[in-house]
């Protein structure tokens, strides 16, 4: 892609920004549904391309397409409901207790063109038409997707489907566009017309992009999902727990951002059932680069001091340079983990996890705070009596402070697309507060604007007294300040 083309793409997105922001909620919601319907209609063709490019199974990709189309439909309902706009109206009040109050009205408005860097491991749900794209379009922002090099053919095919569906739905030209190439992605991120960025990928690349966004003459918000080891803490071990652990580690060859990288278990636990992982068939990794990185990471873990091999696993490279892996599970103890933290604590993107034996559960809160300052998820497996007794309160508190999602009795892989979902956490899990899954993801691409003493004719529809869009409005009537504090008595 040439600089001229980048200029054309950025200019088209900027030109579409205001018309798209002002589209009626039902029209914009209908456009998202049209995109969802078009993706479903093209699913067979798209899945075939994705299988060839990524090595992921048909079953996995079929589920991912369903997730992709239905999250578009979910955001369509969010748009129509209008609650996400957080429309607030403070009536003029000459008797306001801290001085006369003007008429002030506030709502959330689209930030403008968004650049979305597609992920490799979810070629549908976190790629061209995935969650970041859906949230930005729902917010009323034009989207430019930087395609991932690991599935370019799929990216082009999916983009064609999305562009045509939006065009048929009457949305402005330039609302959705695709670019390719690392240099072009960086150049677009630096373009003054881009007002926000989103990224899912490695810590190294994500941090580089976040720094670029922050160092622009006018910095922009950048939501980067970078890396997470998602520790799991168990107060007991049985065969069912180990079976769930193996399934979560090995699913999609461990190429999931929520894969449990560490399982903490009481010292002396019987881990025999974990050897069942040795019976699992090999799975292709997404691309040669990920295969090489996993092989290097696996070698570092296996070579670390104080590590016992539970399941050695293997990595096979074919004539095309593609890697095929089976699960690798190792065990260590707390002292060895601390002594060899440089080799063991980094994320292993692939089917590898570390079991850590601990002697005293009372040590876990301090240990977690020291080793895992930011994660997408943390998980607790404990008996109901232990949870009810409050014995794990300190651990749960520190998990909530350092994680975006705290699970009890489950496994972190399989992120549900639902209004209450939080898929984001303190750094280094993500670069900024927010979520890339669930309806709250829309807030990353909105900014607050207040209008003071504005005539009704110039107010945005959600802030007008007539409320033609029918959105929820929170109104502070005149005279209300005199009752402040009364509810606390």
TrEMBL record:
Gene Ontology molecular function terms on file: oxidoreductase activity, acting on the aldehyde or oxo group of donors, NAD or NADP as acceptor
Residue span of region Disordered: 461-489
A Pfam family matched in the record: Aldedh
Species per Swiss-Prot/TrEMBL record: Microbacterium mitrae
InterPro entries per the UniProt record, alphabetical: Ald_DH/histidinol_DH, Ald_DH_N, Aldehyde_DH_dom, Aldehyde_DH_Superfamily, ALDH_KGSADH
Residue ranges constituting the Aldehyde dehydrogenase domain according to the UniProt record: 3-389
The name this protein goes by in its record: Aldehyde dehydrogenase (NADP(+))
Keyword Oxidoreductase: yes
Superkingdom of the organism of origin: Bacteria
Listed SUPFAM superfamilies: ALDH-like
CDD domains in the record: ALDH_KGSADH
Keyword terms of this UniProt record: Oxidoreductase
PANTHER family the UniProt entry points to: ALDEHYDE DEHYDROGENASE-RELATED (PTHR43353:SF3), SUCCINATE-SEMIALDEHYDE DEHYDROGENASE, MITOCHONDRIAL (PTHR43353)
